[in-house]
Write a structure and sequence with these properties.
The protein is an alpha/beta fold and 265 residues long. The chain folds into two domains: 145 residues, Rossmann fold (3-Layer(aba) Sandwich); 111 residues, Rossmann fold (3-Layer(aba) Sandwich). The chain contains eleven helices and ten strands. The strands form two sheets. The protein has a six-stranded parallel beta sheet, with helices on both faces. Strands 6-5-7-8 form a four-stranded parallel beta sheet, with helices on both faces. The mean pLDDT is 95. The chain binds D-glutamic acid. The site of D-glutamic acid has 17 residues, from helix 3. D-glutamic acid binds next to helix 3.
Length: 265
């Protein structure tokens, strides 16, 4: 059986890969990080859709059986188009986090933080409202969070001050649940927790997305036969692999060796 394909605008999607490896330890994974064109979160809808279509075509050439769009920005903006264009199962990362948040909130005040493109798309707000229209949604772009994580500023005072400043309106809005709607934000969890207070529930969708993938694989009869040996993990990027390797350590907790640069998307 073929591998699970995963793509992200860069390295952040490894938060999802880590969970896929944990929950589906037998499955092969092929990852593509579009490091030459990251960030997606500041780009236009047309560009994000075009990049996402090209990323899917690359993964299809690797003969994957299912594709996970690990990037929140692509999932928010391109998922409907991608599903229309391809027959293969394609899964995004928005609905899993939303379901969990709708279930978790007690005061029906939910916050969402993400890139500007994701927030402007209203994907999270619309999905929450579709499930429960009585929930008030407070959605906020935090454009400095991605560069903070990529710089490795995860604990410093300056990072905390930035987090605090961004999240102030959400704290004032008294949300009791906060969706981390971007691949990078789980790495800032401890600062976000400190800024929002311990009673606010943080929703990190990676675990839930992996659980959804597991369910689809079982339902569609796509599981890899156990007898087919140890799983393989292939990592592809569109820019030189060194920066990716360095950052990957932060996301996965260990270094990656087999990262290759593609010739063209
Ligand atoms: N992967 C993106 C996301 O989850 C964050 C980085 C970017 O802006 O491309 O929205």
């Amino acid at each position: 059986m073929k591998a699970i394909g995963v793509f992200d605008s860069g390295v952040g999607g490894l938060t999802v890969v880590k969970e896929l490896m944990r929950q589906l330890p037998n499955e092969d994974i092929i990852y593509f990080g579009d490091t030459a064109r990251v960030p997606y979160g500041t780009k236009s809808k047309e560009t994000i859709i075009r990049f996402s279509l090209e990323n899917i075509l690359f993964l299809l050439r690797q003969e994957v059986k299912l594709i996970v769009v690990a990037c929140n920005t692509s999932s928010s903006i391109a998922l409907t188009t991608l599903k229309r264009h391809f027959k293969i199962p394609i899964m995004g990362v928005i609905s899993a986090g939303v379901k969990e948040a709708v279930y978790a909130t007690k005061n029906k005040r939910v916050g969402v933080i993400a890139t500007s493109a994701t927030i402007n798309s209203l994907a999270y707000t619309n999905e929450i409202k579709r499930i429960d229209s009585s929930i008030s949604v407070f959605a906020l772009a935090c454009p400095l969070f991605v560069p903070l994580v990529e710089e490795g500023w995860l604990k410093q005072k300056i990072a905390f001050d930035i987090v605090l400043k961004y999240l102030k309106p959400l704290e004032e809005a008294r949300v009791d649940t906060l969706i981390l709607g971007c691949t990078h934000y789980p790495l800032l969890k401890s600062l976000i927790k400190k800024a929002m207070g311990r009673d606010v529930r943080l929703i990190d969708s990676a675990k839930l997305v992996a659980a959804e993938v597991k369910q689809v694989i079982l339902e569609e009869g796509l599981s890899k036969a156990k007898s087919n040996g140890k799983p393989y993990y292939n990592f592809w990027v569109s820019d030189e692999p060194n920066k990716f390797k360095e950052l990957a350590k932060r996301f996965l907790g260990y270094s990656l060796k087999n990262v290759r640069k593609i010739q063209s998307v």
